[in-house]
């Protein structure tokens, strides 16, 4: 396993272990995060762990054209059950994602340092948020890194406080990104929920090919 020193470059992603763990340590800085996402690497750890960097193989992605929308979700969208905004309250979204307790997890991987760094990325128009509202209440949302020059969106986390709210926001985002010519949405690792929305696993090499050159 590679232990990064301050400002040390990442090793090749081919050096990951069988779980996709690439390196430990280094610093959570804006330049490192920008480099990481542009090279298929992302941080994922909790407050009890050192900084962990991942690049799994295979990679879970969603091609916008393959988005699956259930009949029940189509009805909610037609009825405009929720209001969806973009980048209206990034901080509220990432803090809500950090607060949500998830099955099988004893803590959050979205540490205060992560919140602050991604907030800085939002100020640079790199980290984007989706807010889902019911009346004036924030009931769902998600955030991620938008590599606009490569037409790739890297989804990070979502939350919901009302049934179907996060899914409603995700579908709305995918439709928006499709209109903007986004080629794929990085979902990082497999979940049954993502598969139900049309996401699939591809090889890391295929995923990285989308990051090699601007669209």
UniProtKB/TrEMBL annotation:
Catalyzed chemical reaction(s): L-phenylalanyl-tRNA(Phe) + an N-terminal L-alpha-aminoacyl-[protein] = an N-terminal L-phenylalanyl-L-alpha-aminoacyl-[protein] + tRNA(Phe); N-terminal L-lysyl-[protein] + L-leucyl-tRNA(Leu) = N-terminal L-leucyl-L-lysyl-[protein] + tRNA(Leu) + H(+); N-terminal L-arginyl-[protein] + L-leucyl-tRNA(Leu) = N-terminal L-leucyl-L-arginyl-[protein] + tRNA(Leu) + H(+)
Pfam families (alphabetical): Leu_Phe_trans
GO biological process: protein catabolic process
Location of this chain's protein in the cell: Cytoplasm
Group of enzyme by EC: transferase
InterPro entries recorded: Acyl_CoA_acyltransferase (IPR016181), Leu/Phe-tRNA_Trfase (IPR004616), Leu/Phe-tRNA_Trfase_C (IPR042203), Leu/Phe-tRNA_Trfase_N (IPR042221)
Keywords, sorted A to Z: Acyltransferase, Cytoplasm, Transferase
Keyword Protein biosynthesis appears in the UniProt entry: no
Keyword Transferase: yes
Entry's EC annotation: 2.3.2.6
Recorded GO CC terms: cytoplasm
Molecular function GO terms recorded: leucyl-tRNA--protein transferase activity
Function: Functions in the N-end rule pathway of protein degradation where it conjugates Leu, Phe and, less efficiently, Met from aminoacyl-tRNAs to the N-termini of proteins containing an N-terminal arginine or lysine.
Family from the record: Belongs to the L/F-transferase family.
The protein, known as: Leucyl/phenylalanyl-tRNA--protein transferase
Protein source organism: Salegentibacter mishustinae
Designated gene of the protein: aat
């Amino acid at each position: 396993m590679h232990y990064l020193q301050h400002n040390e470059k990442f090793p090749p992603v081919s050096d990951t272990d069988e779980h996709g763990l690439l390196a430990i340590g280094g610093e959570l800085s804006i330049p490192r995060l920008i480099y990481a996402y542009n090279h298929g690497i992302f941080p994922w750890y909790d407050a009890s762990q050192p900084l962990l960097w991942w690049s799994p193989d295979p990679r879970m992605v969603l091609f916008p054209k393959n988005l699956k929308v259930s009949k029940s979700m189509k009805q909610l969208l037609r009825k405009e059950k929720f209001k969806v905004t973009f980048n209206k309250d990034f901080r509220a979204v990432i803090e809500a994602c950090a607060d949500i307790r998830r099955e099988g997890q004893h803590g959050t991987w979205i540490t205060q340092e992560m919140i602050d760094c991604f907030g800085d990325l939002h100020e640079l128009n790199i980290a984007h948020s989706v807010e889902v509202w019911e009346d004036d209440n924030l009931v769902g949302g998600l955030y991620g890194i938008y590599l606009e020059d490569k037409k790739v969106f890297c989804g990070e986390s979502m939350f919901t406080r009302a049934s179907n709210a996060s899914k409603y926001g995700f579908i709305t985002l995918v439709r928006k990104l499709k209109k903007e010519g986004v080629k794929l949405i990085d979902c990082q690792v497999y979940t049954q929920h993502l598969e139900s929305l049309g996401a699939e696993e591809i090889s890391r090499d295929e995923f990285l090919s989308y990051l090699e050159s601007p669209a």
